[in-house]
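Sequence in, structure out.
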Amino acid sequence: MGLSDDKKNYHFARNLKDNNILYPKDLKDEHDKLYLQVTTKNNPELNDRIKAISNTLQVNKYEDDKYIIFPVNSIESMIDESTQMSNCVRTYIEDYSNGICQIYFMRYKNNKDKSLVTIEVKNKKVVQARMRFNENITNEIDKIIKKWEKTLTEVDII
């Protein structure tokens, strides 16, 4: 009995005798890439749902002279956030896509690609706001998030 086409393709795509495959230089980055592939392959509609939710949650976007807060818009952005912040936000992909929680990213306005704070919202309330390594937020950021929280609009996700 031979290998299925999927197993054959996987075998040829991953030469397990190659030390670069067995011992990647950045194991965490390689893990994140594979996690993204598995997540999206197992549920291709997931990213579409996340994009639709993000569009709906744009009503809660915040911006001032220094900061911007915006909803997650893709699986890839959640994985990137998790990597940059060394947190577990990647494990919220399913909950976010099913409307169980809302996830927002807070950034400096002049550096929107660099993670600053990961925020979880439920029922128009911030239930978590954490900086890198799950550190507590600063007093300045806390004031901004509390101000933003007061403006949150209830949205029907699903």
